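Risk register update: the risk of archive-format incompatibility is retired. Evidence:
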Amino acid sequence: MSNPEGKRHPKEQRTGPVIRRRDQVQPGTSDQRLLDTEGPSGWVHTDPWRVLRIQSEFIEGFGTLAELPPAISVFGSARTPVDSPEYAAGVEIGKALAEAGFAVITGGGPGAMQAANQGAVEANGTSVGLGIELPFEQGLNPYVDLGLNFRYFFVRKTMFVKYAQGFVVLPGGLGTLDELFEALTLVQTTKVTRFPIVLFGTQYWSGLVDWLKNTVIAQGKASEVDLLLFHVTDDVEEAISLVTKETGN
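Archived output:
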């Protein structure tokens, strides 16, 4: 029962494993302080609280994706038009990956990501979308069957890598390039076991490959062997073959 108003504080107070006596006794109870809706709210924007949010995102991601079958992450532009050849290629790739026994993981957005998810669904495969909180967030595309939304890019990137046996990279913008180069760096530095990275669309990627050869490697900023970290192709079957061969699936 609650103490009547005006009743003196007890001489001894037990709060969990802690015993407080005399001037160490605190007013109220732990439940009262937890459920009290008054007080400042700035603590929800502090770094210690952000750490808990980050931890919860890792736990949700690990818990949700741990039982996925072998998977491939497919990256590509959110701006790819639905009626474009690039979109059609994305559908083909998603479908072929599913038929080869892979779950398809994308960023969950529109464009090339939606295309790969669509292909996976049409082939009765596992279609996964890992979304991200953005000012222009459009939500997960309708072909995502298992979706997660993240606040933090680095947590999302961990899920792309941890639960994939390889990457297929369709034409894309800065986000796609960010994901591509992070994957290449992880493989180059042996932070992850080597796995295939396939760039789909030779015309689109040729300028980047030439720059790596003629500028980055030519000036000694990378090694010639680094060009072996990825494959470039226009052929869906070849892309799937490379993924299947190197993952042993």
